[in-house]
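Interim report to the steering committee. The following record documents the input for Hydrogenase/urease accessory protein HupE (410 residues).
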Amino acid sequence: MSVHRLGKLFAGIGGIAALALAALSFPASASAHAYSASYTTLEMTKSGTVVTYAIDELSVIEWVGGDTNENNMLEPEEFEADKAPFAEVFNKNVTLKIGGQVQEPIEIENYYLDRKGDATQVIMQVRYPAPSGGQSIALSDKLYETDAKTNYVNLLTIKYGSGQSTAALSGGDRNWAMQVTDDEFAALPADMQDGQAASSSSGEGQADVTPVETAAADASTTESSHSATAGWYSFFKLGMHHILGGYDHLLFLFSLLIARQTLKQHLVMITAFTVAHSITLTLTVLGWISVPGSFVEPMIALSICYVAIDNMVRPQVSYRWMLTFMFGLIHGMGFADILVGMNIPRKEMGVDLVSFNLGIETVQLAIVFIALPLLLLLHRYKHSRKFVLAGSSTALLLGGMWLVERVFIG
């Protein structure tokens, strides 16, 4: 490597270090993922309907405040003080209907913090009336509806009797509904087993059950929503929204594409990234591997910095597919984080996982097919190198900021 290229390399590495002071001035809430996910379990019994709602601690702080010492955590006293405001926000935005009529909560049965590893959830368990045979039951979620900066999804698990199903409520139509038949009502248990809902947000205690197919339908519907299409499509949309809200993943893809390469090299590289992240996405969701987010998220930021520097010191790259495959394994674990906490029935796991991954691939391939012809055309001009340097410098700045934030701020 020439002295000139070494100078560029060290300048790039030095740029990451220089970003430390600037990055520390950003709030901890500034993130490459403008994404918020809640996990809801709706369980029907003959004595009532219990909705267990779990969401990350920082989202609750955003909604109702309460973090008086500004450490981005809820201490016991702060947590208790937030109970009433949080319940008010929940009741205003998450609506349960039975027979087309809005139901008021009977009581808050449980309210607690669940701290596991580097993730903390606020969990609220609310009891509503029970549906009768022949009635519709529906849930709608309007949280973050007017916040264009936050990509929000409610990962819903529905349980009744031996039946269980899942749905991903995202985008502008965050409604779920189904019709409870007389036979289904007769099969409902008298009441919930102790502790059953408390474990729902963690994904433990999952049973191999007969899936109950659901549809994202109008909440006032009186028709059966037993639609096999809605389940896979909701996860397909979730995959699309997830990568569109994952700015670090998009920036990594951009950094890969802007370097001068042949069409064949581009296609091999994208294939390597797709195969790699599909492998770790699947293994992570199935629980066969488990790597903490405190390692995965900084590594994703580091991958952006590495590729950006590589673009800056090498006018034309080759054999990048091997490097891309390695980093793709890391990105796949990042894609999986949203599904790990969801209690997906085993019989639906395959369809939901494939649908989610197809949603990611659809957006990714659309970006590639749009950007690649333009980039190949751009590289025909003598000043294209300046564009590569400018784009890579921007990627290095953002990746460096995220790296410092994720390592030192959390």
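The radius of gyration is 23 Å. The committee is asked to note this result when reviewing the revised timeline.
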